[in-house]
Amino acid sequence: GAGVSQSPSNKVTEKGKDVELRCDPISGHTALYWYRQSLGQGLEFLIYFQGNSAPDKSGLPSDRFSAERTGGSVSTLTIQRTQQEDSAVYLCASSFQGGAKETQYFGPGTRLLVL
Amino acid sequence: AQSVTQLGSHVSVSEGALVLLRCNYSSSVPPYLFWYVQYPNQGLQLLLKYTTGATLVKGINGFEAEFKKSETSFHLTKPSAHMSDAAEYFCAVSDLISGANSKLTFGKGITLSVRP
After folding, report:
1. What pLDDT does residue A42 have?
2. CB proximity A49 to B under 8 Å
């Protein structure tokens, strides 16, 4: 498809389990972003990739959160030992080169519920 | 760092009425500003953006916004609301990360309801 895709669309897990969320950006986009959307905090930036490197990880809330990107394409966000406060919608976005004027294109999100 | 303020969390208008969603920003450099819309259970879709040039920006679905530097505002308007406009609207500003790269800093969002 032409847009950003994410999987799974919904994930229910038990507290303490690890989860992996996947993002497939628009082909040719070198910049990839992860954001988190929760009721209390709104939309928060998590991490930014330029190619396979992550020059800005400042938004990751704890060391339980990590992300990688391989082949300059697909990215995986991993949350270890999930907590109930991790419940949120995780949104991925991509843009052509990450410039400030560029439009970021968002995927439909993964809705994570930690029981 | 940049910031965005969207006052109020919910706006309700009648179908056919004017839509006005307010956004104010704080930026130490000339800002690049965006409005995104989110329909239920979907991702964010760009409505319009201001980067440089004309301060009145037209977007999709009949929406427009005007950049007013003196008021640090970027309010979103639509002359006549349609039922399909019911959604959540986010104002955002580009926030430099490193070099020329940036991320988006969002406001809290405003839910727009349209009454028949």
Report:
1. 87
2. no
- Residues of chain B positioned with their CB less than 8 A from the CB of A21: none
Q: β-pairing, A65-69 with A75-79? A: antiparallel
Do B25 and B68 contact (CB within 8 A), yes or no?
no
Minimal C-alpha gap between B46 and chain A (Å): 7
Residues B35, B48 contacting (CB under 8 angstroms): yes
Cβ-nearest to A100 among B90, B102, B107: B102
CA distances from B97 to A54, A89, A109, B30, B74 (A): 11, 23, 23, 15, 22
Interface list for B 15-44 with A (CB within 8 A): 32, 34, 36, 41-44
Contact A43/B at CB under 8 A: yes
Tens digits of residue pLDDT in B48-66:
999 988 899 999 999 999 9
Local confidence pLDDT in tens for the 116 residues of chain B: 789 999 889 999 999 999 999 999 998 778 899 999 999 888 899 999 999 888 999 999 999 999 999 999 999 999 999 999 999 999 999 987 766 778 999 999 999 999 99
Q: Between chains, do A100 and B43 touch, taking CB under 8 Å as contact?
A: no
Looking at the complex, does the CB of residue A107 fall below 8 Å from at least one CB of chain B?
A: yes
Half-sphere exposure of A95 (CA within 13 A, CB side): 19
Q: How far apart are CA A64 and CA A61, in angstroms?
A: 8
